[in-house]
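Loading example: each entry is read as two labelled lines plus one structure line.
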Amino acid sequence: ELKVEQNPLFLSMQEGKNYTIYCNYSTTSDRLYWYRQDPGKSLESLFVLLSNGTVKQEGRLMASLDTKARLSTLHITAAVHDLSATYFCAVYNFGNEKLTFGTGTRLTIIP
Amino acid sequence: EPEVTQTPSHQVTQMGQEVILRCVPISNHLYFYWYRQILGQKVEFLVSFYNNEISEKSEIFDDQFSVERPDGSNFTLKIRSTKLEDSAMYFCASSEGAGGLTGTEAFFGQGTRLTVV
């Protein structure tokens, strides 16, 4: 069974700092997604990563995928308060319509 | 921008009652999903639906759950006899293609918060 783990689970960081969230998964997949969730809200799609070596950037967020290591990273550059949210990675098994989510990383940016 | 819409946003029901959660997927999407998220926990897959039938379901999706696409636009999740542990946020999602095969992105609705008392 596919397992998806994120670390850290909680991250409190100061504005202006850089940090990385890690997403490890247990079986072969090249379908990885990053979502953002604000408290009580839905899941907002951030990145779709579909092949090994993919790197995508949007504003202060950059996501990458290493399918050989079964690892994706979400890097935050010069954090600002409005990035505070919970971030989930999610993975499909090949040919499988079940999206398996990671445990989530609750990010709090302190002014 | 097209979006997935869910109703109601919040439903409170008594244990043992039936509830129907409603979703209108994005109009040209062919694949539909229900996920749930117990408060403070991760998002869990319930069921996927394509071509008017269930294509995959999780062990959570037991006999008390059912899904239906009663017309061309709505996609519903029915829970026949609710239990306290069914309290959660239920998210509907849709995608244009098969995510597992093509990597097509799933778009999520805003969720229905179900509270069973």
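Chain A touches chain B at residues 30-31, 33, 35, 40-45, 48, 50, 88, 90, 92-104 (CB under 8 Å).
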